[in-house]
Amino acid sequence: MTGTVSLPKWENEQALYHTRSEATMQRMNWAHGVLEPAPEIRETARTLGQLDGIFQNASAWRAMDPGIVVYRVQAWCPLVEGVEGGLFWGTTLVEPGQVDSEYFMTHGHFHAKRDRTEYYATLEGEGALILMDESRKTWTEPMTRGSVHFIPPRIAHRVANCGSVPLRCVACWPSDAGHDYEAIRKSGFGAQLLNVNGEPKLVPSRT
Ligand SMILES: [Fe+2]
Asked: What angle do CA 59, 61, 63 make, to 5 degrees?
C-alpha cells in the first residue's frame, strides 16, 4: 500500500507505522538540511514584523523593514499534532542579521506539555541555542556544524544566528509536545544574546 496519506486509526499502532512509513517517507539534503517539498511538509517563514516584542530594542526593530525574513521552518508531522507516542522532524534556517546589537533569532517557546524534550543538531553556521528554565535562569550552548543538543523537560528554547551565513539546524520532538509561544510573548527570556565587541554575550533582559 503506497501513496495514501489518509490517517490510519491510532488504536492500530502496527497499521499506523507500517502505512505511514511507506506513505510518507521523506528525503533531506544533509548538506543543507532542506527537506524535499512534499504535501505533508509545512513550510513557514517568520518576518521581523511578525516578531513584535521579541527583540529588546523596540525602536530599532520598528525602524527596520518588517518584511525581512528572520527564519524559515520546515516541519514534517506525519501524525496529527497532539497524538501521543509519535515524533516530528523539522529544519530551521535562521538568517544572519541583527536588531541593534541583538542577533536574529527564533521566537522561542516552552513545550505546551512541559515535560516533553527535544533534540537539535547543527548542520551549518554558527550560533547559540538559548535555554531558559521556569525560574527564568537563561544560558546558552554554542551551535556549530555537528553539534547535537538535548533540550531537557521544562526548558524554553530558541536559536540565534551569531555568524555571517545562515544557521541551519534540524530538530526532533514528540508529537504531543505542543508549543507555548504565549509565555515567551508575555515575559520573554531572562537574558538576550547581544553582539558585544564582535562576541556573543548574554545580557540580562530589561524588565
Ligand atoms: Fe521545541
From this structure: 70
- The residue segments making up the domain with residue 175 are 28-204
Residue 64 lies in a domain: yes
Question: Rounded mean pLDDT of 30-34?
Answer: 81
CA 172–ligand 1 middle distance (angstroms): 8
Rounded to whole angstroms, the Cα distance separating 129 from 140 reads 5
Burial of residue 105 (CB within 10 Å: 0-12, 13-18, 19+) is buried
Q: Which residues surround ligand 1, an ion (CB under 5 A)?
A: 118
The alpha carbon of 183 and the centre of ligand 1 are apart by a number of angstroms equal to 13
Give the pLDDT confidence of 115-144 residue by residue, as tens digits. Answer: 999 999 999 999 999 999 999 999 999 999
Contact 59, 42 (CB under 8 A): no
Structural domain count of the chain: 1
- Please indicate, yes or no, if residue 11 is contained in any of the structural domains: no
- Whether residue 94 lies inside any domain: the answer is yes
Mean pLDDT of 145-152: 98
2: CA distance to ligand 1 center in Å? 31
Question: If you measure from the C-alpha of residue 146 to the centroid of ligand 1, how many angstroms do you get, rounded to a whole number?
Answer: 19
Is the residue at 5 inside a domain? no
Other CB atoms within a 10 A radius of the CB of residue 14 amount to 8
**CA 118 to centroid of ligand 1, rounded, Å:** 6
The CATH code of the domain that includes 148 is 2.60.120.10
